[in-house]
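Table S4 entry, HTH araC/xylS-type domain-containing protein.
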Amino acid sequence: MNGWDSFLEDKAAITARPCAAELAAPDSMPLAEFVRFSEDVVRRTRDVAIPWLAGGNYDLAALGPLGDAINSAGRVGSALRRLVDYFSLLQDCTDIRLALEDDMASVSYRILDPDIWPRHHDAMFTLGIVSQILKRGTRGHWDKIEFAFEAESHEMRGDIGKVVCAPCTFGADTNQIRFPAAMLDLALPATQQAACDVRHLTRSIVTKRRETPLVDRLSQMVLRDLNSCAIEQERFAREMGMSSRTLRRKLTEQGSSFQQVLDECRMRQAVFEFRVRPDLSIAQIALRLGYAEHSNFTRAFHRWSGISPQAYRAQLASTAH
């Protein structure tokens, strides 16, 4: 596991680790398994800094063509844009974005699969990689940086602000690092890496999308946009390069429909909300899932699970104690 071993050598508390074959390549471990690994590392060692340090020291060349593209970038902004644009070649079911707002820029990251939780230290690892790129441009300077995390502070098992040396907020909708937008223009140190033609990465992205089942692609888009914008069949169809009519036909051919995909995503996300945000009311969760009336959500959840949202939440609470 590139970047992790050096921080685990002296941690005798780690007794169960992936075999050598699983550590051979960055794409050799399923996402859910890697998330469990990162959580287990922190739980066993009681050292919340390990995932962050592993990301900050990760050899980007181990990412293959994407690592070459990042290492050959001339500026911080170009390197981050390549990481974001081609991240799906490394990891499925993920929403990662580079955004600008006034004089600040941000990279946000979250796993879309609502069945994967906790996932706190996977986020630390990924944002650690982002920090590595930023520090290359700043030559190690670390000022006016801010973080946000999905998890609550007590779930992170340590003083995260002290680890990342920056202010942090918790209980956010995504994991994010914010920094002055001027950093995007900083030149990266010259390397021996030859200039990289990213067109082959673009072709790989296109090929991967074509090979991904349509229901899976649509599910990821729905999970990405729940609680952030309107869920519209026509917009998703355009994003996938087809008409709404073609999307409906292809979904029918796969034994599904847009409404079925939407309902399944909403219900899975509802369970996630119950687990992660116990302080929110049923009505608030219904709004987050795109229901105008919480009664509609209650009926839909009962059809899906066989019990009411209130009863399901009560069951979760009883098993948590």
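Residues 13-27 have pLDDT under 50 and may be disordered.
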